[in-house]
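does this look right to u?? adenosine-5'-diphosphate version
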Amino acid sequence: MDGSYSPLVTDARTEFEPEPWGDDPQLREVLGEQGAAGFRGLLDGFPEPVGLLWAIREGGEVVDFAFGYGNPAMVSGFRIPAETPDRYTLLEALPRMRGSHAFDAYVDVCDRGEPWVSEVTYDTPFGDGYMLGTFLHRAARIGDGVIVFLHDVTASRRMEAELVAYADVVAHDLSAPLAGIAMLVKVLELRPDEPPAPDVLQELRATSDRARELVDGVLDYARSGELVIETVSLQDVTDAVAADLRPQLAESGGTLVVGDLPEVRADPRQLRRVVQNLVGNALKFRGEAPPRVEIGAERGREEWIVSVSDNGIGIDRENARRIFAMFSRVERRVEGSGIGLAVCRRVVEAHGGRIWVEPAEGGGSAFTFTLPFGD
Ligand code: ADP
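got this back:
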C-alpha cells in the first residue's frame, strides 16, 4: 500500500477535485447492462450519498468489502479520490471499521438479507478536530453486497446535543449566580436599618452581570445562524476588531500581525464576531511571553482559508474538537463561558465553511476557518 496516499481526503486545505468513480462490473453482473445503466441514471443525480459495497468472502464468510458504485454526492461529500475503489478495500480505507457495529451489520445484511437502519458518526482521519458528520445509514442487500443510503443528520444531532448542554448550563452556571444573588439579598434583608456594605453590592453586581452575560451569550448563539450576506473587506473587519480589542492588546503587551486580507462574501456583523472571538481568545489564553496573534488568508480552490494563530498555551489534541461545543471550556483559570467558539462554528457553518484548530508552529494554537467564494 502506498503510505503517502490517503484513501479519504477530508482536510479542507487539500485540493480535491471530485471525479466520478469508474465502472462497476459487479453491478453490471447483478443487474445486467441495461439495469446497471438505469440504476446509475437514477442515482447519479440523487442528492444524498449512495454507495455499493461488495462482499469479499473467505471460506464462505464475509471478511471485508470492496467499494462498488458511489454516486457523486458520496464521492464529493466524503472527498474520496477516484482511485480508492480500485486500490483499497473498505477495511483498508477505514481500519477503524474492523469489528465495529456497522461492519457486523453490513455482514448481516449480506448474509441474511435483513435491511439495517442506524446512525454512524464519521470523524476525519487527520485528527484535525473536526467531525465530518453523523449520517443515518439505510442498508439493504443487493447481489452479494450492500447498498447504503446515507442521510446527513449532523445539524440536528448537534442541535440536540447543544440543547442538552443548554439544560446543563442552566442547571449549573446560571443557578450558581442566582443562588448567590438570593443569598446576598437575604444578608441585606437581615439588616434592614444598615446601608448595604459596598462589597456586598459589588458582589451582587458581579453575579448578576455574570448571569446576564450567560443569557446574552445564549441569545447570540441562537441568532448566529441568521445571515445577511454581502461583499465584506476582511481587512476592515480585522481593523474594527483590533480597535475593539485595543485595551486588551495594550494591557497584555500583545501584537497583532495582519497579512494581506481579501474581500469575502459574508455577513459583516457575524464575521466580526468570529474574528473578535478568535483574537480575543488568543489574547486571553496567552502564555508567559507577550501574545503575538497572526491573521492571514489563503486562496483555496473554492473558498478562502482564514487563519488566526497565536503563541499562547495551546490546546491538546483530545480537546481540539470538544472546545467548539457549546459551554465547553478547558482552561478554567481564565474567565469565560465556553460560548465563543460555539458561536464561531455556527457562524462559519451557516456560511458553508468549516472551522478547526491545530497546534501552531512553535507553540500556541492556529484556528482556521473557510469561507466559500460564493457567487
Ligand atoms: P471561553 O473563552 O468563554 O472559555 P470559548 O468557546 O471561546 O469560550 O473557548 C472554549 C475553550 O477553548 C476555552 O475555555 C479554552 O480552554 C480553549 N481555547 C479557546 N481559544 C484558545 C486559544 N487561542 N488558545 C488556547 N486555548 C483556547
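The domain at 157-223 is CATH 1.10.287 (Helix Hairpins). idk if thats expected tbh
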